[in-house]
Design brief:
Shape: flat
Number of helices: 1
Distance between the termini: 52 Å
Low-confidence stretches: none
Order of helices and strands: EEEEEEH
Structural class: alpha/beta
Radius of gyration: 19 Å
Largest sheet: 2 strands, parallel
Oligomer: single chain
Mean pLDDT: 76
Number of strands: 6
Strand content: 15-25%
Length: 106
């Protein structure tokens, strides 16, 4: 129905998946999935604006680039490094080897 989507600072990895057809054989069925798609379930293609994203083995099908530049709510954009390594860094901080930035003494 001509909807618009804004996708930013996101990481897509291995969106296309392979499923074994039979455990005895080496045959695999690859399901083609798309990280971002604008022409899937509507008579009218949608629009997508994507920026600062990482796509690894994750195809997109953006048939129309959007013009969306703002949304009617506020949010804080995460850095890609924080998106990818959030759990890793949390575990590292919990070891006591490093304090989170907010916990550091000035």
């Amino acid at each position: 129905m001509g909807a618009q989507v804004l996708v930013e600072s996101s990481i897509f990895e291995n969106v296309a998946v392979s499923i074994p057809i039979s455990l005895e054989s080496q045959l695999f069925l690859t399901l083609t999935q798309l990280a971002i798609v604008t022409d899937l379930d509507s008579d009218e293609d949608g629009y997508a604006v994507q920026r600062n994203n990482v796509f690894t083995n994750s195809p997109t099908e953006i048939t129309q680039a959007g013009s969306l530049s703002s949304v009617p709510y506020t949010y804080t954009l995460a850095y890609l490094f924080h998106v990818k390594y959030k759990d890793y860094m949390a575990n590292f901080w919990n070891t006591g080897l490093m304090l989170p930035p907010a916990s550091r003494a000035s």
